[in-house]
Structure formats: C-alpha cells, structure tokens
Design goal:
Layout (H helix, E strand, L loop, with lengths): L4 H6 L7 E4 L3 E5 L7 E7 L11 H18 L4 E4 L15 E5 L9
Antiparallel strand pairs: 1-2, 2-3, 3-5, 4-5
The chain binds guanosine-5'-monophosphate.
Length: about 110
C-alpha cells in the first residue's frame, strides 16, 4: 500500500508527540486536537483501515487505545476509527482516535 504521513512518523522522518509505543504500535497526540485528549493509535504495519487489519493487530491497537483513554480520561472517552471518504478518513493508515477530556455529543456529526 502507499506510504502515508503516519509511515513517516513511524520511521521518525517527521516529528510527533509520541505518548506510547511497543513492538506493534505507536500512539501520539493528534496535530489538530478535537478534544483536550486526542491521541492516535496506529499499528506499525501499514494497514489501510480496520477492514484490512488482522484480528490480532486490530485487537492490540484497540486495547492500547482503551488503556490510554482510561488512564487519561477518568470520566469517559470515545474510541473512533474512520473508514473511507464518507466517514472522513484522511490518512490511509489504520488509526484509532482516543477522544476525551470533555463531554461528547451523540450522534456524532
Ligand atoms: P482521519 O481523518 O483519517 O480519521 O484522522 C487523521 C488524523 O490525523 C486527523 O485527526 C489529523 O489531524 C491527524 N494528522 C494528520 N497529519 C498529522 C501529522 O502529521 N501529525 C499528527 N500528529 N497528526 C496528524
């Protein structure tokens, strides 16, 4: 698949505010935060979106995202992964948004 800006972050070709990493994934603050806490969790393997990832990878990034949210947002948080143009996916490398630190609206826009 095509390289993306997240591939460059994984390879340390561009900077990011990394808050967690392990052998399978990386988590860093979103450059354009939509909430007081807005972290992106990405697998090192460059799957285009959640439909492409294997279960182990998807499970791991979701688990890391949930742990980071629970650590930073004691009153609750939201995990989101956008898939495709109508959902607003702008980077074609699977990522889980961890959003929290404020009350959320439902339904989402
Ligand atoms: P999507 O719209 O694909 O669901 O989410 C992509 C996210 O990546 C957006 O929230 C956007 O602000 C974030 N983003 C795009 N480019 C960069 C970057 O270079 N660094 C960081 N930290 N976040 C980025």
């Amino acid at each position: 698949m095509a390289d993306t800006i997240f591939g460059k972050i994984i390879r340390r070709e561009i900077p990011a505010d990394i808050v967690y990493e392990d052998d399978q994934c990386l988590a860093f603050n979103d450059i354009s935060p939509q909430a007081p806490v807005h972290i992106l969790v990405i697998p090192r393997q460059p799957y285009e979106d959640a439909t492409q990832a294997n279960a182990a990878t998807l499970g791991h990034v979701m688990q890391v995202a949930a742990r980071l949210g629970a650590e930073r947002c004691p009153n609750g948080f939201r995990l989101v992964t956008n898939i495709g143009p109508e959902a607003g996916q702008s980077v074609q490398h699977l990522h889980i948004h961890v959003l929290g630190g404020r009350a959320m609206q439902w339904p989402p826009g």
